[in-house]
Design goal:
By secondary structure, the protein is of the alpha+beta class. Helix content is 32%, strand content 25%. The chain has 2 domains: 17-115, 4'-phosphopantetheinyl transferase domain (Ribosomal Protein L22, Chain A, Alpha-Beta Complex), CATH 3.90.470; 122-225, Alpha-Beta Complex (Ribosomal Protein L22, Chain A), CATH 3.90.470. The strands form 4 sheets. Strands 4-5-1-11 form a 4-stranded mixed beta sheet, with helices on one face. A 3-stranded antiparallel beta sheet has the order 6-10-9. It has a two-stranded antiparallel sheet with strand order 2-3. It is globular, with a radius of gyration of 18 Å.
Length: 244
């Protein structure tokens, strides 16, 4: 399902790319990525308390710059980022290329698309979490009822199905958790296709969205959302291949 290409494929309109990236780079490669980060990015990397988080940030940001450089045909260190009110990054000056990044544990997902805003989320589903407490705080009443009615053996994966799909939506909206997660509903049962089912602010809104869910690696769940059409979602694995 996830293909490691020899070079960065062409990004076509309505054909988003999602890259799965294991965050386990060696020191030599980290030093190369460090040199293409902006001073602000370097300062942010140094503010992390744990070295592991610093290394993961450098790798994720370095690969983001490399891929943006390939798609835009420009040097990775020349790329400038701006941020909206909710700290979602974008390109400066404004560009039709949209992107989004998520990381959890030892994995990251990077998504790219022309024109339509996108959101991507990845979660390590082995991490300890009080499922009932978090669901009751963030999910809609219908989603909570669906989750709590399931056998305990199914609740964890169902919770993360719901959480990643909701996160992908609000990241595409660019609002983060400032947007109430209980104001829209997504599919969540194991085996159900990823879909935005309903929004409380506009009954017709759900039809405007494309959503996908996938397993980037063992014990990880990911989701992607875009408010716009998708003709072909392409899943790529970052690797040490020629040209990338």
């Amino acid at each position: 399902m996830w293909v490691s290409p020899r070079s960065v494929p062409q990004l076509a309109l309505h054909q988003p790319h999602i890259w799965c990236v294991p965050l386990q780079a060696e020191q030599e490669q980290l030093q190369q990525w460090w040199r293409i980060l902006s001073p602000d990015e370097q300062k942010k990397a140094e503010r992390y308390r744990f070295e592991k988080n610093t290394r993961q940030y450098i790798q994720a940001r370095g690969i983001l710059r490399e891929l943006l450089g390939q798609y835009l045909d420009c040097p990775p260190n020349s790329i400038e980022f701006g941020y909206n009110t909710y700290d979602k990054p974008n390109l400066k000056p404004e560009n039709k290329l949209k992107f989004n990044v998520s990381h959890s544990g030892e994995m990251a997902l990077l998504a790219f698309n022309w024109e339509d805003e996108i959101g991507v989320d990845i979660e390590d589903r082995t991490r300890a979490i009080e499922i009932d407490v978090v669901a009751k705080q963030f999910f809609s009443p219908n989603e909570v009822n669906t989750l709590m009615a399931l056998p305990l053996s199914e609740q964890q994966i169902t919770f993360f199905n719901c959480w990643t799909r909701k996160e992908a939506i609000i990241k595409a909206l660019g609002t983060g958790l400032a947007f109430p997660l209980n104001q829209f509903e997504v599919s969540m049962k194991v085996g159900s296709p990823a879909r935005l089912l309903a929004t409380h602010w506009d009954p017709a809104e759900a039809a405007n969205w494309y959503m996908a869910s996938f397993t980037p690696a063992e014990n990880y769940i990911g989701a992607f959302a875009v408010r716009g059409p998708v003709s072909d979602l392409q899943l790529w694995q970052w690797g040490r291949r020629e040209g990338i």
